Amino acid sequence: MIEALKNAFRLPDLRNKLLYTLLILVVYQFAAHVPVPGVNRDALQALFNSEGAGLVNVLNLLSGGAVSNFSVMANGVYPFITAQIIIQLLTPIIPQLEEIQREPGGQEKLNQYTYYLAIPMAALQAWGQINIFTSLAGGEQIVAGFGSDPFITLSTIITMTAGTMFAIWLGNLITEDGIGQGLSVIIFSGIVARVPYNLGRLVLNSPNALFNLAVFVALTVITVIVIVVVQEGVRRIPVQYGKRVRGRKIYGGGSTFVPLRVNTAGMIPLIFAQSIMAFPAVIVSLFPKGPVGDAITNAFGSQQGFTYWFLYFLLVVGFTYFYTDVMIQNQKLSENLQRQGGFIPGLRPGKRTQDFITHVVRRITLVGALFLGMVAVLPGVVQGLNTLFFPATAGDFGSNPALVISSAGLIIVVGVVIDTMRQLEAQLVMRNYDAFMR
Known about the structure:
Layout: H1 2-10, H2 12-31, H3 41-48, H4 54-62, H5 78-90, H6 95-102, H7 106-136, H8 150-177, H9 182-204, H10 209-232, E1 234-241, E2 243-246, E3 249-252, E4 255-261, H11 268-285, H12 291-301, H13 306-331, H14 333-339, E5 342-343, H15 351-376, H16 378-389, H17 407-430
Antiparallel strand pairs: 1-4, 1-5, 2-3
Helix pairs in contact: 2-8, 5-7, 6-7, 7-8, 7-11, 8-9, 9-10, 9-17, 10-15, 10-17, 11-12, 11-13, 13-15
């Protein structure tokens, strides 16, 4: 692998792609440290040290520390990801969108709609994020004058929305001229950039430093192995192609397989479930404060308690099935096989083939859904064990080894590394070098 990396840097065009990607990531990290004007740093720091800092710490990790500075990039690229999910879910439901998808160049038009939708999603996330943080900070404003001064409120939302679109643009630059899938690499860089600080906080500021460090190493190794096994796991459905006779020649007649992934949905259910869990706190933040609102904010904004983690587990499992079904329906595997002259042995083409594929996918998705659900609640389980064995650290998320790299963060990191390695392998194989991942 080291030799293959050396070979990659010996090739001028591939070296330029790698250096260009690194340059874009450096630009992103600089922008992630540009704060929104008027940020109350004392209130922000107090929020990170409070017992209700669970959601804040997760958002900070996934944004690469942009939330801790309350940077113009504090939203990250998640509004765009949310917009992508919404468009994907609406496409099979709305006939007009489905027709657009089938047209030549239809996918580009849907991507354009996604960019348009990302703008209001970024504005809504900026509004909700500031209000949730203010509620978790005990009513002390994170951005001075936000909500009371229309000019400050509007300028802050516009600034954070512009930061999101700038991050999306940087991701597109990586996709076009760099290595890897741009938005995923942007998220990956943010997670990795925050790990040294979180690890230092885990070791230096905790009375159980050695225990937490050992738990972190064990959790990381075991989780990465399980993620790789599940993410790469597939069920192969055999496909036979009929023979066609043209003149004196026989075409086709070969056999192949359709790989159905155990985890087709990737980490999308985690993002979607987390958004739903934060939604009640966002809604409550729009109304005057009261005991009911405070209870909802503490329950859904602090990421603590059995009820929160149990609901989170159920949502992740449910969204895994839902999103997988939508993805399979959009792929139209049965229709494509029939068009290409292929069939699954023992099954009629058409509806029976589609029903069989759906049945198989739902069975293997059970493993993927339970896997995602358990990975999602891992921080809660570790926090519960910490509370049981070390009551003095109860509620301190800085002492939670599972949050040095969150469960969703690990899935992103492993997925991006595998995808980037494959792209480098493809580039090297085209130039007659040995396979990169061998």
